[in-house]
Protein: Enoyl-[acyl-carrier-protein] reductase, mitochondrial
Organism: Lates calcarifer
Amino acid sequence: MWLPLHTVCLRSQTTCRRSFTAALLKLSRHGDNANVSHFSHSARLSAQTCKALLYRRHGDPSQIVKLEEVDLPLIGAKDVLVKMLAAPINPSDINMIQGTYAILPDLPAVGGNEGVAQVIEVGSQVNSLKKGDWVIPKDAGLGTWRTEAVLAEDSVISLPNDIPLLSAATLGVNPCTALRMLSDFEDLKPGDTVIQNAANSGVGQAAIQIAAARGINTINVVRDRPEFTQLSDRLKAMGATHVIKEETLRRPEIKELFKTCPKPKLALNGVGGKSATELLRHLQVGGSMVTYGGMAKQPVTVPVSALIFKDVKVRGFWVTQWKRDHSNDERALRAMLDELCSLIRQGKLMAPACTEVGFRDYSKSLDTAMQPFTSAKQVLIM
Amino acid sequence: MWLPLHTVCLRSQTTCRRSFTAALLKLSRHGDNANVSHFSHSARLSAQTCKALLYRRHGDPSQIVKLEEVDLPLIGAKDVLVKMLAAPINPSDINMIQGTYAILPDLPAVGGNEGVAQVIEVGSQVNSLKKGDWVIPKDAGLGTWRTEAVLAEDSVISLPNDIPLLSAATLGVNPCTALRMLSDFEDLKPGDTVIQNAANSGVGQAAIQIAAARGINTINVVRDRPEFTQLSDRLKAMGATHVIKEETLRRPEIKELFKTCPKPKLALNGVGGKSATELLRHLQVGGSMVTYGGMAKQPVTVPVSALIFKDVKVRGFWVTQWKRDHSNDERALRAMLDELCSLIRQGKLMAPACTEVGFRDYSKSLDTAMQPFTSAKQVLIM
């Protein structure tokens, strides 16, 4: 569970809904036992229906998401038919199904906003993709929890297929969020410091690794837990400079830590509430805190003195908006993915701990993804 | 009363104290009845002592600020002797005496950080100033509540003397704060909207007028009070587009208001607490809120969704820091003062409502300045 959104503020409702699944999804008129042979007017060689995890109303994901058979539309000249390979269950997917996320698809909708697919057929005017290519969605809302999909060529972007499948499946949201936050808010140089809470989240783990690859120190704050030492060791193995518990932020010994690295220029906040205020307290004068999540379901509280006399900058980041803002500049997205894939190939960026789950075992996966302290990301394998 | 600062965060303690009064202030060794004739070794024609409002410890201003006679140092080659003409009592002056402000002078100290003085004598190597010039401090900490002062040439900047005395005395803090906040955070164009609370404050009144001169709409939020209509009329006469009570921000009728002007790109926050959160709620997507004061003594609370999905930018502004950041670029300060003086000459920027008080009546003035809902700024006339 992620953002407690009841009031939703959007650039434009139209924009936010523009790429949703309605156009790509036509419910089977034949039900689960449909005989699909009457689709033979299609020139397609492969399946004319697919299996999809569908929800028809908002609510508890494990109650309302059902595996259904849905029609696939014909491939247009600028479309591709893809086979989904793997798709994670992200907190934002859960919130979208619950109806509490900032963007909501028209219902019924297929769940999932991220994942990697393989092109199995291309339309006659498709130039940028060919059969066999791996692709990921350019934007949220494609409905990735399905076996196949017909997608507009320009709704996906190709990915090299020499990276691990789980890395590809989880590349488009968390690592992109981490990379942008580390790049776009402060001019970080080797030796600088970043502090973050939720350091064990998907974004947190990516931030540790990308920062380490750039020579940037990270102070990583996690909630206390029985296996703290084990977690700390794991994050340090990824490149974390320091791993501390929330309560350490409020203790005098935190000062010791700043003897080994400068005060942070940048804070990454995935929690909100007191945790965010504590991050702010340790920022350098003039530094930035960027909020990308609100797991504590509490607002960010900023002392007036920090704003006026310490000149802290309090910002937010949403990778979906970044992608939309750059939708006319594919080079920006391509450059970011290339940088991430290069780190993956060099062994400097691993996928977060994942649990691979067969597509048909989605229900238990949804439950697991909603538990607190989940130590692994659930990834559906199609 | 302004900022509830207990923990103070500074760029550098050294920097913050660098311009303070210690070097300029030597307590009279002769007490209030000192015979000053033994200072005849000075070539100076004018007074060798001056009267100053001094405090020797932090505490309640009306209890601890005393009118004392203090020695004036000799004028160095790069110094000027000035006669203070008028100096306001600002909230930050009060907080400095209370010991709760972000920068604190060495004690004993002369109160006051703003005001206009006239040059009455110049050192042999002074180039930028001549006798008769009006000057204002370049930085906080000069100790302006005094009759005369010997100041380094480069600690002051000249001002045209064809503007009203009260405008000159109150130019360096509030109008500069308003102008910078309207200039440096969002690219505002004629027809755009700014929303602000504390609209009746010195900064608020300056913001109304500068915005109006630039063709920018202002939505001005004030606390409810018996003479609301009178206040509203006064602010509208200055150029305010709308004047509303705090509670109106939370009511549906606020929507009516946005039929006549676009949603604000910029919010100016002098209050904090709920008031600040309400301003945020009405910002355009991607807009900025700039905090310059915290009258409510409550932090700024920002919903996580506003940061992530509405991309609001939460910032602070402190004119003292701006001046220090630009201390090597006098053109920037000069350009700002020229712009403000031009508006004053055109009748587009009036001083806030002021009560002129004789220098010796300072004690009552300090009391008055500390009352809530003060409708006029106390200005000491020397």
Remarks:
- Residues 174-320 of chain B form a domain with the Rossmann fold fold (CATH 3.40.50.720).
- Chain B has two domains: 13-170+351-381, 174-320.
- The interface with chain A takes residues 3-5, 7-11, 102, 272, 277, 285, 291-294, 298-318, 321 of chain B (CB under 8 Å).
